[in-house]
């Protein structure tokens, strides 16, 4: 798969993420997709296949009134593409950690994307 195709898959995935289009997100992913969300070096969420990923995505969709990932930069590495992300969101619900509905979240992070058979096969979100 060439780098232009990989770039487009990433853009499609993020555009669907931003618009809460779960089915669109899933269409960019391999059936054996792996996902990890890492915050402060700790894995906070994980999915081992498309079904588990959909469950996480459906749950996350309910947490936000608004969310947006903006691509700052994409670096091509040997086996992956590393995307610098600027993230903003507004919570739709109160969370157990004390964050309140209506609270704005802003942070920078990165996402590592891996590919197999013309689809995204692994995503690692790191904050």
Describe the 3D structure:
The chain is of the alpha+beta class. The protein has a single domain, classed as Nuclear Transport Factor 2, Chain: A (Roll). A 6-stranded mixed β-sheet has the order 2-1-6-5-4-3. The two termini are 28 Å apart.
Summary, kept brief:
The protein is of the alpha+beta class.
Amount of beta strand = over 45%
User: In the CATH classification, which architecture applies?
Assistant: Roll
Ends apart, CA distance between termini: 28 Å
The CATH first-level class comes to Alpha Beta
Number of helices: 3
Average of pLDDT: 95
Q: Give the helix level as a range of percent.
A: 25-40%
Gyration radius, rounded: 14 Å
- Per the principal axes of the C-alpha atoms, what is the gross shape? globular
Low-confidence stretches: none
CATH topology: Nuclear Transport Factor 2, Chain: A
> Largest sheet, order of strands side by side?
2-1-6-5-4-3
Alpha-beta content class: alpha+beta
Task: Work out the count of structural domains.
Answer: 1
Order of helices and strands: HHEEHEEEE
Biggest sheet: strands, sense, closure?
6 strands, mixed
Number of strands: 6
Properties at a glance:
Nuclear Transport Factor 2, Chain: A; globular; alpha+beta; 127 residues; 49% strand; 3 helices
